[in-house]
Amino acid sequence: MRKLVLLGGGYGNMRILLRLLPNNLPQDMEIILIDRTPFHSMKTEFYALAAGTESDNDVRVPFPEHERLKIVNGEILEIDLEENCVLMENGERVAYDDLVIGLGCEDKYHNVPGADEFTYSIQTIGKSRQTYQALLGLPSGAVVGVVGAGLSGIELASELRESRKDLQIKLFDRSPRILRDFPERLSNFVKKWFDSNDVEVVPSSNITKVEPKLLYNHEETIPVDAVVWTAGIQAVKPVRDLGLEMDNSGRLVINQYHQLPNYEHVYVVGDCAALPMAPSAQLAEEQAEQIVKVLKAVWRGEELPETMPEIKLKGFLGSLGKKQGFAYLADRTVTGRIARLMKSGVLWMYKWHNG
């Protein structure tokens, strides 16, 4: 049996499974999915798990079941592109004929001293659980710093405000205004929500050092009881260790077929792939759709098209607690209750389609 090995059970590889199973997989092909957990975790909802407004069970769905799908749980130590195999931490070697690297990302600390050691994370379900335990255990009146006011930081700060009204929350934004690259109306709506709900936004910040219970913003020191880092991502270590060409964000350079240029049987999906758009679940799923088409053409011995269709994203949805939200769709801004309902509907549909 030929082996299609999927590294990581994130949004991209889940979409590949959905498209290939149960009836689109060649009879001489099996799929091996390698992930550290026995279920698919919805990373876009980790902020709610960390804040305590959603349970662990709410942010995961089971992997599909099929007689030619094998799930391998464990940590990946190395990807050997020359030997066509993946080395696991327990010493197991998993051979492949085709490989899809979808291992996602981890926090990037930008060489800030103490950031790795003294901050919490929401990059994995395990780290989100640890963050929840830390935030849940804080006494009333404690100060929580959220470093990074991108979508993750905004959603975490707002959800934490609803979960723990007794905490002081400071959101550190490197830009002069929140969501600087989007319409000012969107920024103003989010900022107004934070002002109304007593979340302090610190604009034009630059965190230069983190110590236990202390943040350095420029030359100022700010006492904190816990810090959550949402200020940047990078490809995971096994991907960085490949030593291949990467973009300025540390993502693997790929060709038009989402393959590594010198390894036509190796595809990259999601946060590890160098694309002109920012990493997102939506982008990973759109990539996966194209990867499936390429795989099926290769398996049938067909010639690949000269170019692939341009990936077009619909926009993004964000929440401000359970009742308010914001969206940027087709160059239009939507705010308030309608945007929050839209996000809830998308989440419900995703769970329904994925079992």
UniProtKB/TrEMBL annotation:
Top-level division of the source organism's lineage: Bacteria
Cofactor: FAD
Sorted UniProt keywords: FAD, Flavoprotein, Oxidoreductase
Keyword Nucleotide-binding: no
EC number: 1.6.5.-
Flavoprotein found in the keyword field: yes
Domain FAD/NAD(P)-binding intervals: 3-285
One annotated GO molecular function: oxidoreductase activity
Database matches in Gene3D superfamilies: 3.50.50.100
Alphabetical list of InterPro entries matching this protein: FAD/NAD-bd_sf (IPR036188), FAD/NAD-binding_dom (IPR023753), NADH-Q_oxidoreductase (IPR051169)
Family: Belongs to the NADH dehydrogenase family.
Name of the protein in its database record: NAD(P)/FAD-dependent oxidoreductase
Species name: Planococcus shixiaomingii
